[in-house]
Design a protein that fits this description.
With 142 residues, the protein is mainly α. 73% of the residues lie in helices and 0% in strands. The protein has a domain at 54-141.
Amino acid sequence: MPDRDTDAARERLAAAQNALLSALVAGATPPGGFDRRRLEVQRRALLAKRAGVVAKVAPGLADILGEDLRPLFEAYARERPMTDGYRRDALDFAAHVLDRSGPDVAGRRVRLAAWLDEQRPSDPAPRGLLRRLTSAFRKKDR
């Protein structure tokens, strides 16, 4: 039988953890008892890591955006915590840049739109038994 004091303590801990996480990844006000400068350093480090991973999983973005990738991504990420993995984050970021960018500089906007269009799968991959059968037939034909 759960103890009410334990349940209350767990709820307080969960709220404190949520407040800290929100401060680190979503720009929320830091909870009391934390050094704001240290949290800001950590927040920037997490943001840089996220931008770096996005650049690795979507190298086409880095090719198209060049040196602007990091500042554009940081502006995007300050408003949007990652919710569905790095690949989805990269696609959402590219769409964000297209929605918010100004005039096309050196064809970059056109290239970014083409890249984004290429990344979206047109047909879902076969699953389960169908995938295994398709794979087996392909191996047989080699």
